[in-house]
Amino acid sequence: MNSSYASSPQFPYNKHRGPHPGVLAIVHILLFAASLILLGILSHGAEYPRPFGPLEAAQKTFLRFSDAFRINAFFQFASAIPLGLFTAAVCSRLRFLGVNVTGVSIAFFGGTAASIFFLLSGLCGWILSQPAIAGDLVVMHAIQLLGFGGGGIAFTAALGLLMAGVSVPCLFGKYTPRWVAWLGLVLAGIAELSVITLIVPQFVWLLPIVRFPSFIWMVGTGFTLIKKRPEPVNS
To answer: Which pLDDT value is given to residue 137?
Structure first.
C-alpha cells in the first residue's frame, strides 16, 4: 500500500509546496515600514530616543508620545512573525532541493533567533510605552538598552547567520542569481562585524547598513530561489 502511494503522481512532489518566501519578505518589510512611518507621524517627527543619548530627553519623548511607541511596538512585533516564516520557507525549500549541508541548519538557527530577538525588541518597546515604566529613569534605560541590544545588535548578528547559511549553498548550487548570493554574503560579514558595537558604541552605524539592504536580499532570495528539483542529467 505504501509503495503504491509513493509511486502515485502526487507523491513525492516535483515542486516545493508552502508559503511563498518572497511574499513573506514583502509582508515583513511592509509591517516594519509601517512601524517607522506611524511612529514618525504620531510623534510629529520627534527624534527617536537613542540608547546612548541623554536619558532625560529620552524619558520625555517616551512619556509624551506613549501611544505612538505602543503602536510602533505592535507593528515591530508583528513584523517578526513573517521573518520567522520566511526562514522556515527558505530552509524547507533548500532541503527539498537536496541541499543537505550544515549551512541550512545555520540559516534556520539564525533566522529563528533573529525573529525571536525582534519579538523581544517589540515587547520592550511596548513596555516603554507604559508611563509607570518610562517614569522611572533607571528602569526605562535598562529596558531601552535591552530592546536595542535585542532588536539591534543581536538581531543583526542572527540575521547575518541566516543570510550566510542560505547564500553559500545558493552560490555554489546556483539556486539564486549570483548577485543575490554575493549580496547576502557581504551583508553577513558586515552583520557579524557589527557585534563590535557591544564594545565600541561608535560601530552602531553598521546596523542600518545591514538592516535595510537585507530587505533587497530577502525579496531577491524569496522570488528567485528555484522551486523544482533540477532534472537529472542522463549519461
So the answer is: 93
The DSSP annotation for the chain comes to -HHHHHTSTTSS-SB--S--HHHHHHHHHHHHHHHHHHHHHHTTTPPPPPTTS-HHHHHHHHHHTHHHHHHHHHHHHHHHHHHHHHHHHHHHHHHHTT--SHHHHHHHHHHHHHHHHHHHHHHHHHHHTSHHHHTSHHHHHHHHHHHHIIIIIIHHHHHHHHHHHHHHHHHHHTSS-HHHHHHHHHHHHHHHHGGGGGT-GGGGGHHHHHHHHHHHHHHHHHHHS--BPPPPPP-
Would you state the pLDDT for residue 227?
Answer: 84
User: Nine-digit cell at 90?
Assistant: 527558505
Burial (CB < 10 A; 0-12, 13-18, 19+), residue 202, is exposed
Helix axes 137-148, 102-128, angle to 10 degrees: 160
C-alpha cell at 228: 523544482
pLDDT for res 230: 65
Residues in contact with 233: Cβ distance below 8 Å, sequence separation at least 6, in sequence order: none
Q: How many CB atoms lie within 10 A of CB 174?
A: 12
Q: Tell me the average confidence (pLDDT) per consecutive run of 10 residues in the chain, 235 residues long.
A: 40 69 97 96 91 90 95 97 97 92 95 98 96 92 95 97 97 95 98 95 94 97 87 52
**pTM beyond 0.85:** yes
Nearest to residue 91, comparing CAs of 25, 24, 21?
21
